[in-house]
Design a protein that fits this description.
By secondary structure, this protein is mainly β. The chain has 5 domains: 2-124, Immunoglobulins (Immunoglobulin-like, Sandwich), CATH 2.60.40.10; 132-222, Immunoglobulin-like (Sandwich), CATH 2.60.40; 229-328, Immunoglobulins (Immunoglobulin-like, Sandwich); 336-427, Sandwich (Immunoglobulin-like), CATH 2.60.40.10; 434-509, Immunoglobulin-like.
Length: 510
């Protein structure tokens, strides 16, 4: 105060000249629904002195009952700018504000006003809008759930967020809401639960206020496949066998399988080449390189694409292992099966099979299928229990289905254990001769041969020079053909099949 009185005295007698400080109310900036920045500029400041600005503000038409001060700053030049941020405003509302300049008085130990702006300024807050929300990323996918982490309701649009969460569905832009259990802005995580295995889901975050609901971008993920069901093994020769399994929960769409074949029940040791082997989408696989008399165990896992588009995850989802199936090479059936053939007659198909020995054999079931996957039982034949002599069996299928029909035996012990035979097939109504399930393992060439006309056939293996390697005579309509190939060189070979009415030529490469 003394400094100010001294300056006034000096001015009055003309001994000192000083410019009077001024302050101007400037336009407001950064206006949204509930916040604003108030601005002012001051001139003719005394360098080195400390100043601050007080803004008085209120709704237009009402007394400016609100006061906010800027921080104190030291004047570094004759002009300075001052600002203060105001929050908690009402949407779609007009406000007036005016600036006043204060200087710090050392003698009084407080700030005193030295200037008031000549006029005030006004601004209008924005109208309320829906919130701003973004969808997080996919994590922790299981057979029935998936997490969407890091969703962010970052702004309320000028109206309190009353609910937020994530929408889940099986098509894009889902609207079925799963609430995170609260309102307000902030980040949150949410899980999709009680879903289905191997199913593609879409998800997007949402936030709701009085104006409406806003949504984030879509992300997608596929739940883990269900556990496959390993069923049985069949075999035609001692060094190879065929593994069978079924898709688990969620079906087989988009599924591929990984196969393990072990020589120990705990899967601590594996048959060479059969640890985590990718066997594609089929539900069967022929294992080669087995040793006669050795016991093997197989199991499978199902995989699908993670598909976390819009998220950060990738790669594949893998199911848990199936239960293992045990098989002793060279002993698919607990009986020694000599033959299993099918003969076409005018009104039926006759299935014949013979055993060389039987142990604990309760009965046979004869099964048929039109697609080689789904079998049904049409005949049950009692077994001999225990036998060490050749026994012959037969059953008739009177269904007379057109096209290819597949057959297999299911042999059941007295204790309920069962095994399946290899699959054979017949055809009707003049369909062509079929060659299926061709296998070359380095020692043998084998394939299933089906002749719908039930006539004798001559099957010859010929090399690329026209030399005959081996000739077989076949007198049944269905048979597993095996050629010895352990001394053959790699290259092109031809299988010639000659019947009374047909000549079939099949080229193969070893």
């Amino acid at each position: 105060m003394k400094r100010i009185l001294l300056l006034i005295t000096l001015l009055s007698i003309g001994l000192f000249a000083m410019s009077q400080e001024t302050v101007t109310t400037d336009a407001a900036t950064s206006i949204d629904q509930t916040t604003v920045t108030l601005n002012a500029s001051a001139a003719s400041l005394v360098v080195g002195e400390w100043y601050k600005v007080k803004f008085s503000w209120g709704e237009t038409g009402s007394p400016p009952g609100n006061v906010d001060y800027t921080a104190s700053t030291e004047a570094l030049g004759a002009t300075e700018s001052y600002s203060v941020n105001i929050t908690g405003l009402s949407v779609s509302t007009t406000y007036d504000f005016k600036a006043r300049l204060y200087i710090y008085d050392d003698d009084e130990g407080e700030y005193v006003r030295v200037a008031t702006a000549a006029s005030s300024e006004s601004f209008t807050t924005l109208a309320a809008s829906v919130p701003t929300v973004s969808t997080g990323t996919v994590a922790n996918v299981t057979t029935s759930s998936g997490d969407i982490d890091g969703n962010d309701a970052s702004a309320d649009g000028g109206s309190t967020i009353t609910d937020k969460g994530v929408c889940f569905g099986t098509s894009t832009d889902p609207t079925t809401e799963s609430s995170a259990g609260g309102g307000g802005i902030g980040t949150y995580n949410l899980s999709k639960t009680a879903g289905s295995a191997n199913t593609l889901y879409y998800a997007r975050a949402y936030a709701t206020n009085a104006t409406g609901t806003a949504y984030g971008a879509n992300v997608e993920f596929k739940t883990t496949p269900g556990k496959p069901n390993a069923t049985h093994v069949t075999a035609d020769i001692e060094t190879e066998f065929k593994c069978y399994w079924e898709a688990g929960d969620g079906g087989s769409s988009g599924i591929t399988y990984r196969l393990d074949v072990a020589t120990a029940s705990d899967f601590s040791t594996y048959l060479a080449g059969y640890q985590d082997k990718d066997v594609g989408s089929a539900t069967t696989h022929v294992v080669t390189g087995a040793t006669d008399g050795v016991t093997y165990w197989f199991r499978v896992r199902a995989t699908n694409s993670y598909g976390a588009k819009g998220g950060t995850k990738g790669g594949t989802n893998t199911s848990v292992n199936s239960e293992s199936v045990e098989y002793k090479a060279g002993s698919t059936l607990p009986v020694e099966l000599i033959s299993f053939t099918a003969e076409l007659e005018e009104k039926s198909t006759i299935l014949n099979w013979a055993t060389a020995s039987e142990i604990n054999n309760d009965y046979f079931e004869v099964e048929r299928s039109l697609d080689k996957e789904n079998f049904e039982t049409f005949a049950k034949v009692e077994g001999a229990g225990n036998s060490n002599i050749v026994l012959n069996y037969s059953a008739a299928d009177n269904s007379l289905s057109d096209g290819v029909v597949y057959y297999r035996l299911k042999q059941t012990d007295f204790d309920g254990a069962f095994e399946y035979s290899s699959i054979i097939a017949v055809t009707r109504n003049g369909e062509k001769i079929l060659i299926e399930d061709y296998i070359y393992d380095g020692d043998r060439i084998s394939f299933n041969y089906f002749n719908p006309n039930n006539e004798s056939s001559t099957i010859t293996l010929v090399d690329n020079m026209g030399r005959i390697i081996e000739t077989l005579e076949v007198n049944t309509s269905s048979s597993r053909i095996v050629f010895n190939a352990n001394k053959l060189k790699t290259g092109l070979y031809v299988i010639n099949i000659v019947t009374n009415n047909d000549i079939i030529i099949k080229k193969i490469i070893l």
